[in-house]
Amino acid sequence: MSISPIRGLLSFALFCFAQLCFAQQYSVSGTVRDAATGETLIGASIRAGENTAVANGYGFFSLTMAAGEYELVASFIGYQSTTQSLILDKDTTFTILLESATTLDAVEVNANSAAKNINSPIMGANNFQVQDIEKVPVLFGEKDILKTVQLLPGVISGGEGSSGFFVRGGAADQNLIILDEATVYNASHLFGFFSTFNSDVIKEVTLHKGGMPAQYGGRLASVLDIHMLDGNKKEFRAKGGLGLIASRLAVEGPLKKDKGSFIISGRRTYADLFLKLSPDSTINGSKLYFYDLNLKANYQFNERNTLYLSGYFGKDVLGYANTFGFDWGNATTTLRWNHVFNNQLFSNTSLIYGRFDYNVDVFDEDANFNIASIVDNFNLKQDFQYYAKNNHSLFFGFNVLNQKVSPADFVSRDTTTLSSIASEPRKGMELNAYISHDWKITERLNALYGLRVSGFLALGPGTFNTYDKDGDIVESVYYDDASIVEQYFMLEPRVSLNFKLNDQSSIKGSYNRNSQNLHLLSNSTASLPTDVWAMTSQNIKPQLADQGAIGYFRNFRNNQYEFSAELYYKEMSNQIDFKTNADIQANPNVEADLLYGDGRAYGLEFYLRKHTGRLNGWLSYTLSKSERSFQEIDNGAWFNARQDRTHDLSLVAMYEINDRWSLSSTFVYSTGNAVTFPSGKYLADGKPIWYYSERNGYRMPDYHRLDIGFTYEPKSKGKLKSTWDFGIYNVYSRKNAYIIDFRENEANQTEAYKIALFGIIPSVTWNFNF
Fold it and tell me: Which residues of 354-373 are buried (b: 16+ CB within 10 A; e: fewer)?
């Protein structure tokens, strides 16, 4: 992108608001922080008279008001509100410090900050603080962001134990997962039983599944935006946990008190250490573990400039003696510069690197080969937030994303039995710009509208093929390095409206269009590390989705209770499926085996949440439908998508029994996945051949499960605070189907049989903080 369009975008943004600034007004701005640690508080509420503001992703806020005297009130759930007098006769900047609430009553006072559910025009969004995640019982006692997200309305689990998820009828690859702005391509450990995110270093999690703000793009279904902690600016602290499966440790402290801080966290499983105790050389020579490492540092040079550096590095390693090895992992690095131009203009500049790779090694008498694949990207992002007046805020920016995909190469180390297969790497560049206006039109009507402009360039070098409908090569053309093979240009309008019926309720509506240029080619119901990533090309068109939604939102009892009901409809084009018997692994012509069609999804979501008090939690229910249509499948008839589930129910409850004991539980129920089962079989040359009548025409059995957890907090010993977490996963030992297969019984009749992964699983973890 050249400099002139950027200048034009900035000039246009400033021009739109210049006429709003003639009155004699002043601005008050600053940062909201935790008084004990110096952590910025994302989403804190600031109120001065009738004027309100919400702290952004870096804790920054800005209010522009007429000169005068005000009572400035700042609040945040879980913190004691603070009030201070303000004489506004000039532009003013200061830091607001909030003390953590120590009693339930103090928390209840601050429930008014939850009123943003009614006031904000954004819909289809759910927000969690880390304390919400830590109380939810999960598999093996490992607190898990992604499994907590699966308990929200419109979000469906990828399967038993899986951290994969589907949002509003979308596929797994249609979710953008970002950690401190860096893309995480495969967010799971051990094939989905754990997520890559260690809750010890997580500050806040926000899921956008409808009415997506214009600064987000690149995926059709959702954005999961995860912010890491910055680190304690006041003192050195450590926390962690010892569990049956994994242990973790996080250390944080000031680089310079009140100016800069760091946090380092590591986690590792140790099943492989127990394998070494086996007398069997095959077993004690095997590997089975994962690790992840989170690092972050920041330094505030002055009130206007802060620098952040964060990274994540994780790896899974599996191996069976000297015959098989498999590893995969993610790496991300983000360098960010926050700059405050003045009390009204905030800037964030980010340089981001992300990488995902996997490596498979097989050492066998009949097969000796390696399969490896890499996806990496470099991203430059520039975001501006301009607070012209309290009823006008402008968000605008751009990003340039350079991406490279190296598909799986099959390298044979014994060419007498197997031949190597090489696939050319593919390069692409995305150029995106956006502008968005948050406008409080009247006391009752609020609008957030904008436009995202997306461009994609498929680049050389390499040989690019075009195919006919039978998958045969029609033409092959070689392109030099940086040559443009194909280019696409897309306009993505976004609009959300909020009409307040009264102080306790509102009606919202939204429409948004999204495009996607990175696609996961998978035949499985959940995302696997070995699934193939492919970029948009001359054969694969950008996926597109148009979604409309309307909802009713209401809060009760001083905003302690939050209720919403949302109805959505989504149309998708250029959806991807596979021809029968398609081979996607180590296939240089995988695009020849793809089918392209349409999708649609619609549903009704209910959400009831209690924020405060001894008993809190939430109830979510989704009634939905997700379908696909491909001309080559059943002559274009609509069929159930793999992730289609009619009913999905989650109930989460957390109860503080007393100062020492607390109880938590979750109950989940959902309709079984849509699957393709054989409708019959026949013999050909004495061999059974399965007959399939329709795509995804059958259902897995319904899924349901109850989990409970107990937390005991002993008396503190000096600075050491600790808790014991006891959990029971699948309390009534429901044998939920993981796979259903078919076999011949003793009477030579075909019968179905079920494979279940888990029965009842107890867990215990000791957590500490000092």
Answer: bbbbbbbbbbeeeebbbbbb
Which amino acid is located at 41 in the chain? Answer: L
Place of tokens 């242990």: 247
State the average pLDDT over residues 84-113.
Answer: 72
The pTM of the full predicted model, rounded to 2 decimals, is: 0.91
**Both tokens of residue 331?**
């790496």
The dihedrals phi and psi of 379, each to the nearest 5 degrees, come to: -135, 130
Cβ–Cβ contacts within 10 Å for residue 311, how many? Answer: 19
Tokens, residue 86: 């303000």
**335 exposure class (CB count in 10 Å sphere: 0-12, 13-18, 19+):** middle
Backbone angles phi, psi at 68, to 5 degrees: 160, -170
- Dihedral pair phi/psi, residue 272, rounded to 5°: -65, -25
**How far is CA 353 from each of CA 178, 219, 245, 450, 599, rounded to the nearest angstrom?**
12, 18, 31, 27, 32
Interatomic CA distance for residues 164 and 155, integer angstroms: 10
Coil, strand or helix at 200: helix
153 preceded by a cis bond (ω within 30 of 0): no
Coil vs helix vs strand at 741: strand
Q: How many residues does the chain have?
A: 770
Q: Work out the burial of residue 30: count CB atoms within 10 Å of its CB; fewer than 13 is exposed, 13-18 middle, 19 or more buried.
A: buried
Residue 756 CB-density burial (10 A; 0-12 exposed, 13-18 middle, 19+ buried): middle
* 220 DSSP 8-state letter: S
Give the range among 21-35, 46-60, 385-399 with minimum mean pLDDT: 21-35
Positive or negative: CA dihedral 110, 115, 117, 119:
negative
Q: Check residues 692 and 565 and name the one with the higher pLDDT.
A: 565
Residue 731: helix, strand or coil by DSSP? coil
Tokens of 47: 């109120």
- What sign for the dihedral angle of Cα 434, 440, 442, 444? positive
Give 275 or 144, the one with higher predicted confidence.
144
In angstroms, how far is CA 272 from the centroid of its own chain? 29
- Residue 222 DSSP symbol: E
What is the Cα–Cα distance from 438 to 671, expressed in whole angstroms?
A: 39
8 A C-beta contact, residue 352 and residue 378? yes
Highest mean pLDDT of the ranges 14-18, 362-366, 423-427:
423-427
pLDDT for res 55: 92
- Are the C-beta atoms of residues 226 and 145 closer than 8 Å to each other? yes
Contact assessment for residue 572 and residue 599, using Cβ atoms and an 8 Å cutoff: yes
